[in-house]
Amino acid sequence: MSRIYLTGFMGTGKTTVGELLAENLGCRFVDLDALIVEDAGKSISDIFATLGEERFRDIESAMLHALDQTAALVVATGGGIILRETNRRFMRDTGYVINLAASLETIDARLTGDTSRPLLQGDSRHQRLRALFMQRQHLYDECDFKLETTGKAPMEIVSIILLWLKNRGE
């Protein structure tokens, strides 16, 4: 089995789907954001607050490239990992990149009350969410497979991904 990277905007279910997908494929699941938090000993919000977004993106890229290249993995990436061409190329070269997508309205509803997202803190949360969504959308379109998650249960999403992989000979 090739490596599978689940990417997409925040709130699209990458971690939940990733855990279930890895279980169904019998391989290890890696949540890249959780690895960063564990390694840094502080939350992503704290990393953003103390080091800034650019340094966080450096750490995120380093963690992605440091993953064991011999292991079959399902990797849930952070929503902004696609901002760097080197990350997009690395993921394409080492596995399948699956974009879990949802409408802006769905994402907004899913993230209501979520205070853990540093890029959405403060006033004008909805405007920042919309701006980030528009900035990243075309980059997610570079993925191998795009799957709309709105209205789908996590196991339904996993089943669709498994069928897609089977059709690709995996």
CATH topology: Rossmann fold
Distance linking N and C termini: 6 Å
Principal-axis shape: globular
What do the pLDDT scores average to? 88
Query: Can you summarize the main beta sheet?
Result: 5 strands, parallel
String of helices and strands = EHEHHHEHEHHEH
Which blocks of ≥5 consecutive residues have pLDDT under 50? none
What is the share of helical residues? 40-55%
- Kindly give the count of domains: 1
CATH architecture title: 3-Layer(aba) Sandwich
Structural class: alpha/beta
Residues in β-strands, percent: 5-15%
Number of helices: 8
CATH superfamily: P-loop containing nucleotide triphosphate hydrolases
Arrangement of strands in the largest sheet: 2-3-1-4-5
The count of strands amounts to: 5
CATH class, anyone? Alpha Beta
Radius of gyration computed on alpha carbons? 15 Å
